[in-house]
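User: Okay, second chain of the day. Same drill as before: sequence in, structure tokens out.
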Amino acid sequence: GDWLSIKPSFPRGMKALVDEIHAAGYKAGLWLAPFICESKSSLFHNHPDWVLRYPDGSPVIAGYSENWNGDFYALNLQHPDVRAYLEEVFHTVLNEWGFDMVKLDFLYAASIYPHSGRTRAAHMSEAMSWLRCLVGEKAILGCGVPISSALGKVDYCRIGCDVGLDWEDIRPARIHFRERISTIKAITTTIGRYPLH
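Assistant: Same drill. Structure tokens below.
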């Protein structure tokens, strides 16, 4: 969730990096997961009201990653401050830093829980249209997004799950967790969905 916080390992900032990429004759792309935040993020601690919540007040978990800090949470895209923050993020990334493309991941988080009297499909459709407006003419690679919601709104789209270093991640497979990192699932979904190219 802390997309504008730059680590000390990038002392010259992101624009200098993008300028070097452009000088070498390439286009620059950046991975973001705009609809989620981690439990250890400044965003989660400073703005707990930005996190989508169930009626009992508990946060809506959008997924789990052993590579991160465990659970990560869906942001409430109906909250005006969340939208203002993400508008600032995309303006900075695309216009100030100069990235040519964004790879946007975990986009399903926009529709993981129906709320505000709207269906999951309505939330997803609105979120994807809004992203297209934010990014403008620059390229979007959509990931972790229901394919029907991405049609006509992204330039590229991953149509399967992430591949892993192993053929199958046994622990999530045992509980039939659909969104697991799995090479076999990536292959089968890619074969099944290739006509959508």
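The chain has a mean pLDDT of 91.

User: Thanks, on to the next one.
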